[in-house]
Design a protein that fits this description.
β4, α5 and β5 form a beta-alpha-beta unit. This protein folds into 2 domains: 143 residues, Rossmann fold (3-Layer(aba) Sandwich), CATH 3.40.50; 182 residues, Rossmann fold (3-Layer(aba) Sandwich), CATH 3.40.50.720. It has 14 helices and 12 strands. The relative contact order is 0.13. The chain is elongated. The strands form 2 sheets. A 7-stranded parallel β-sheet has the order 8-7-6-9-10-11-12, with helices on both faces. A 5-stranded parallel β-sheet has the order 2-1-3-4-5, with helices on both faces. The protein has 342 residues and is of the alpha/beta class.
Length: 342
């Protein structure tokens, strides 16, 4: 098969080449870089545009487009594979993306042509799961607030949750969404001894319970959880998972964690809930507008731990992606199916 791999700032073409270039599965290999010269802020803006506008957000042109049109298999990370590529590529059999989401691929067009789309939800799952649990501890135990105060010369004794600080073992954590990341978060929480509720309308309760968690409806999870952590996805026209009505259901001593997507939360509603104390606190890694500035409302809040989109930012997340993708492709070629085929 003719293979084309397209790297970018986060996952380089060289990383693809090390794994794919001389593999027996491919008769030829062509590597390209797409938007790799952008800085991190510009790259984040590009990603958000793709996540909201889809595979047609950016046009692929020139030599890269010509190579894609002649390929049997295309490997990408952020680079779009739009309807025009899919419809004009006569030999294309597989599109393989190193992302968990497939917003950069015209999936429906691929399905109509019988082209298999393989994604990689595990590429940064471990990294995001680790950060999620870390943020739970940072927010509930005032880690970043204490650090900030000490650096300002203040030995702080009073915090937004003083009088309500609890250990994870006495808390109930609710996970909304139980895919690769949600399951890894649950596995990492279980040694702490906390109770774990899960709401995922796409999974049977038996699957959730087999992994040591309690399957519940969304309303029950919001009402009974001490920490609510988001790990789901929504479509471009869907409302946020957490809006004003959902926040009203949460306990006054509860916390919201979002390391998934900014669109999952109505941010003005969350800011209002934090300001009026209808929930205790939050920890957020993703924002509707990035980068944040010191004037942004959420930055002014004392009862919110903030990180600047660090969820998947580990060497392991990117370095292992080509290997994981190749494993999935080999399985698809040999058996006609793979776990992460769309």
């Amino acid at each position: 098969m003719k293979c084309v791999a397209v790297g970018d700032m986060f996952l380089s073409e060289e990383a693809f080449a090390r794994v794919l270039k001389h593999h027996a599965l491919f008769c030829s290999y062509q590597g390209f870089s797409w938007k790799a010269d952008l800085d991190r802020v510009s790259t984040r803006t590009l990603i958000r545009k793709i996540e909201t506008k889809g595979s047609e957000a950016y046009a692929v042109e020139g030599e890269l487009k010509e190579a894609m049109l002649d390929a049997d298999v295309i490997f990408v990370h952020m680079c779009p594979v739009g309807k025009d590529i899919i419809e004009q590529a006569p030999h294309l059999k597989y599109i393989v993306t190193a992302r968990g989401g497939v917003e950069n691929i015209a999936v429906e067009s691929a399905k109509k042509k019988g082209i298999r789309v393989i994604h990689c939800p595990m590429h940064n799952a471990f990294a995001v799961a680790e950060l999620t649990v870390g943020l739970m501890i940072c927010e509930t135990r005032n880690v970043t607030r204490a650090d900030r105060s000490l650096r300002e010369g203040i030995w702080r004794e009073s915090y937004p949750n003083t009088g309500s600080i609890r250990e994870l073992r006495s808390m109930t954590v609710g996970l909304i969404g139980f895919g690769a990341i949600g399951q890894l978060v649950a596995q990492r929480l279980q040694p702490f001894g906390c109770s774990i509720m899960v709401h995922d309308p796409y999974l049977d309760a038996a699957v959730i319970e087999r992994l040591g968690c309690i399957a519940v409806d969304k309303k029950t999870l919001l009402q009974e959880s001490d920490i609510v952590s988001l790990h789901g996805r929504i479509g471009p026209n869907d409302p946020p998972i957490i809006g004003r009505e959902e926040l009203k259901l949460m306990k006054p001593v509860s916390y919201l964690i979002n390391t998934a997507r900014a669109v999952l939360v109505d941010m003005p509603a969350l800011e209002e809930a934090l300001q009026n104390g209808s929930i205790m606190g939050a920890a957020i890694d993703v924002f509707p507008k990035e980068p944040l500035t010191k004037e942004d409302a959420v930055v002014q809040l004392d009862n919110c731990t903030l990180t600047n989109h660090r969820g998947g930012d580990t060497l392991d997340s990117y370095e292992r992606s080509p290997e994981l993708l190749l494993e999935q492709l080999q399985e698809a070629v040999q058996t006609g199916h793979t776990k992460y085929m769309i």
